[in-house]
Amino acid sequence: MKLTILSTSDTHGFVLPTNYVKRHQDLPFSLAKAKSTLDQLRQAATGPVLTIENGDYLQGSSLAYYAARIKRQPTLETAAYNAVGYDAGIIGNHEFNYGREYLSSAIKTLNYPVLCANILAGDEPAFGAPYQVFEKAGVKIAVLGLTTSYIPHWEGPAHIAGLAFNDVVETARQWVPRLRELADVVVVAYHGGFERDLTTGQPTERLTGENVGYELTQIPGIDALVTGHQHREIAAVVNGVPVTQPGYRGQDVGVITLELTASSTGYQVVAGSGTAALAPTGDQPADAAVVNSVAAVQTATEDWLDSPLGHVKGDMTITDPAAARIKESAYIEFINRVQMAATGTDIAGTALFNNEGTGFASQITMRDVVTNYIYPNTLAVLKLSGADLKAALEQVAEFFSLDDGQLVVTPRFLKPKPQLYNYDMYEGITYTLDIRQPVGQRVTQLLYHGQPVVAAGTYEVTMNSYRAAGGGNFAMFSPAKIVRENQKDMTELIADYLQEHPEITASANHNFTIQA
């Protein structure tokens, strides 16, 4: 008998095949296309099938934002997930972005159980059960739910108050032996990724505990490991355990198969029989049930996105995102000025989060705002020393390298997971990053109001809540250095600013220089 384990992960509310840059798109991803793929795989399977939603579904798309921020009705989005036919779901880190209350409300609307063993409220799991045993065709399958424990490094304290985020590996070590006694097959569904090369076991990132997938494969008793979080496309057998990670926005479905044999006590997995694969969804039609489940809110979202907010005098478009990171764009300067206005500082930093944003055309709509500023960030003001500020810029400078004298993005910011959001550009200071110099010695000019930044001096700097808490491994930042916050979503702050300033002038003072 063959057991098939199917999974999606990091769909981020992209229920339909659009990134909302414009109406009527048919892009090669979405929950709706994943549902069509899942249905085909379920129909083709020759034995029992288990289907898992592996987290990060509440935040990301414009539809998800509209459901959470505008209507505060999670069912407007979760209705689509209920149409898929999942057996179980997992908590992702982005599930906390709209607050614990919204997350709890969303979970109540789902028609499948949510599993999470390592996030506790007191001594009890905070969201659903730690595991569940499913019986399919006489096979008992235990699914253990785990979520990256690194969430307190990113999420605002108000969203996670009263919660404990226990170590993922230690939690698995406690539960897996118990589940082996209860079930024929043990599956770990982990909203987290891999910290090491899958072949050599060598670290591929700082071992902070954010990703521990490789370490999980070394725990005896795990038959299959479903992962996510990094948005990577992975299908492999690691330390004898088949693993999958099905990309981003529903671009793939993870497929793990295990060969089972009957025994006197039930079933057991044939040693070495596990395989892993990914099934791309892009060529599939969008499933009608999923499309229909969000038809009304999709129309409302599109109409809301087209609502006008303001006008630009000049050019605030981004045609080359790589160039916009080397030479300041008017869009980046505008975002930093909105941040400073919202918090009363004269220094701010922001990133161009991905390569899909196009900046602002002459007329700005809400669509332009939410498709350029894609995260539900709030703002924090940090009181930093000059040494902190310089250290942050030195880390920013690591984004670039030289290849035969040509300026390129350092490979670790592109693979295994793109980290374009970890390159910040600042306003309110004048600085030069000389990429020809050794790492740690690349800040060759750093001025504030025309004077050198003093290492022992103090400076108030605005940044998004993720970065302010040290997100992206910026160790010089921390919640302890936050002196005040603006709890409005950045998207709302941009819209508010445009209502107050309905015509803005595109400008870029080119206060930073990248030398190569």
From TrEMBL:
Its cofactor is a divalent metal cation. Coiled coil: none annotated. Pfam families: 5_nucleotid_C, Metallophos. The keyword S-adenosyl-L-methionine does not apply. It is found in: Cell envelope. InterPro entries: 5'-Nucleotdase_C (IPR008334), 5'-Nucleotdase_C_sf (IPR036907), 5'-Nucleotdase_CS (IPR006146), 5_nucleotidase/apyrase (IPR006179), Calcineurin-like_PHP (IPR004843), CpdB_N (IPR041827), Metallo-depent_PP-like (IPR029052). It catalyses: a ribonucleoside 3'-phosphate + H2O = a ribonucleoside + phosphate; a nucleoside 2',3'-cyclic phosphate + H2O = a nucleoside 3'-phosphate + H(+). It comes from the Bacteria. Keywords: Hydrolase, Metal-binding, Multifunctional enzyme, Nucleotide-binding, Signal. Belongs to the 5'-nucleotidase family. This is Bifunctional metallophosphatase/5'-nucleotidase. It comes from Lacticaseibacillus suilingensis.
